[in-house]
Design a protein that fits this description.
The protein has 121 residues and is of the alpha+beta class. Helix content is 29%, strand content 30%. The chain is globular, with a radius of gyration of 16 Å.
Length: 121
């Protein structure tokens, strides 16, 4: 309902964290990999619209952790593409203070009051 709409809106500035498996960088040296992360972190543009800076880091040879504060439509994928990376897999793992992935399909859990308040802040 209203909470989901607020949290998912790019204007809410609630952090959304993704694990992104990428390809296309296998021949890159360390400096090229670092440049890609810096370009994604510094704030890019999608269709001429500037994006807020993101937090991006390599977790291993093929996986990035990307934390967005806007979360525009397909933003993480577009950022990887602009940096010369192809997305092989993408998974949202956190929204605000809520870690995702611990529930089976159809299962639900109540949010702790502190988390609920922070998402409405």
């Amino acid at each position: 309902g209203a909470l989901a709409t607020r949290v998912m809106s790019p204007a809410s500035h609630v952090e959304k964290e993704y694990l992104v498996r990428v390809t296309g960088h296998e021949g890159w040296g360390a400096s090229r990999r670092d440049r890609a992360v810096r370009s994604m972190s510094s704030g890019m543009e999608i269709d001429g619209v500037p994006l807020l800076p993101a937090t991006v880091r390599w977790l291993n040879e093929s996986q990035l952790q990307i934390t967005l504060t806007e979360g525009k439509h397909r933003q993480a994928r577009a950022m990887c593409d602009m940096a010369g990376l192809q997305v092989a897999g993408l998974k949202r793992v956190r929204i605000g203070g809520v870690r995702l992935g611990g529930l089976r399909i159809g299962q639900w859990a109540a949010l702790p009051e502190t988390v609920h308040r922070s998402l409405w802040a």
